Amino acid sequence: MAENGNELMDKLVALCKRRGFIFQSSEIYGGINGFWDYGPLGVELKRNIKDAWWEDVVRKRDDMVGLDCSIIMNPKVWEASGHLGGFSDPMVTCKECKKHLRADKMFFLHVFNDEQKEALVNATEVRAKYPAIAALTVATIMDAAVEADDVNGAVHAAPGAISEAAVKHNVSDLRKCKGVDAWVALDGGTSYARIEGKSGKWYLVIVESVKLALSGSDRACPACHARNTLTEARQFNLMFESWTGAMQDSSSKVYLRPETAQGIFCNYKNVLDTTRMKVPFGIAQIGKSFRNEINPRNYTFRSREFEQMEIEFFCHPKEADKWYEYWRDARFQWYIGLGLQSSKLRLRNHEKDELAFYARSCADIEYEFPFGTSELEGVANRTDYDLTQHQKFSGKDMTYFDDQTKEKFIPYVIEPSGGVDRATLAFLCEAYCEDTAPDENGAPQARTVMKFHPRLAPVKVAVFPLVKKEGMPEIAQKIHQDCKKASLPSFYDEKGAVGRRYRRQDEAGTPFCITVDGQTLQDQTVTVRDRDSLRQERIAADKVVPYVKERVS
Ligand code: GAP
Question: Is the CB of 419 inside a 6 Å radius of any atom of ligand 1?
Answer without folding.
Answer: yes
